[in-house]
UniProtKB/TrEMBL annotation:
Family: Belongs to the ATPase delta chain family.
Top-level taxonomic group: Bacteria
Chief localization: membrane
This protein's name: ATP synthase subunit delta
Keyword Transport: yes
InterPro entries: ATP_synth_OSCP/delta_N_sf, ATPase_OSCP/d_CS, ATPase_OSCP/dsu
Keywords tagged on the record: ATP synthesis, Cell membrane, CF(1), Hydrogen ion transport, Ion transport, Membrane, Transport
Native species: Nitrincola iocasae
Location(s) in or outside the cell: Cell membrane; Membrane
SUPFAM superfamilies membership: N-terminal domain of the delta subunit of the F1F0-ATP synthase
Cellular-component GO terms for this entry: plasma membrane; proton-transporting ATP synthase complex
Length: 178
């Protein structure tokens, strides 16, 4: 996985710099996310894996599916990826692009998992604490997962804070078994 991220990074950087220069970061983010969905589709993977299709035909296929949303720069980018046999990198490029965009905007997406629905005041208080801790604007997404029994799990990029009861019980069981 790290290898694909490394290969994708120069393409991501080029797309990001181009979009930043044109002032189209949001549009490019949407385009790359949609193209990544297309490439990840099981039927599309099968078609794109067909050796009889030329790189240009593969690019035309992707461009035709999302033609209404793509600008000329994005179309050229898809053709470049196809020419270099790198269409498989679109999901990585999309994720990296969004990370570059979040870094530029000084924001971070945080996934909050709880055992039960939290009061909005508590979510706001938690977001404020994370905002001051991380030094970034926090975009909080909340989900309920009763299997964690209690507590919370926070995910922000590479940072994971697991304060769930389930994790604590697992640690206790490991300590007792060792």
């Amino acid at each position: 996985m790290a290898e694909l991220n490394t290969i994708a990074r120069p393409y991501t950087k080029a797309a990001f710099d181009y979009a930043l220069d044109k002032g189209d970061l949001d549009q490019w983010s949407d385009i790359l996310a949609f193209a990544a969905l297309i490439v990840n589709d099981s039927e599309m993977k099968r078609v794109l894996g067909t050796p009889s299709l030329s790189p240009e035909q593969k690019a035309e296929l992707i461009v035709s599916v999302c033609d209404k949303t793509m600008n000329d720069g994005a179309k050229n980018f898809i053709y470049l990826l196809a020419e270099n046999q790198r269409l498989i990198l679109l999901p990585k490029i999309s994720a990296q692009f969004d990370q570059f965009k979040a870094d530029l905007e000084k924001s971070v997406d945080v996934d909050l998992t709880t055992a039960f629905e939290l009061d909005q005041k508590l979510v706001d208080k938690l977001a404020q604490a994370l905002r001051s801790k991380l030094g970034r604007e926090v975009k909080m997404t909340s989900t309920v997962d009763q299997s964690i029994i209690g507590g919370v799990i926070l995910r922000a990029n590479d940072l994971v804070i697991d304060g769930s009861v389930r994790a604590r019980l697992t640690k206790l069981a490991e300590a007792m078994n060792s």
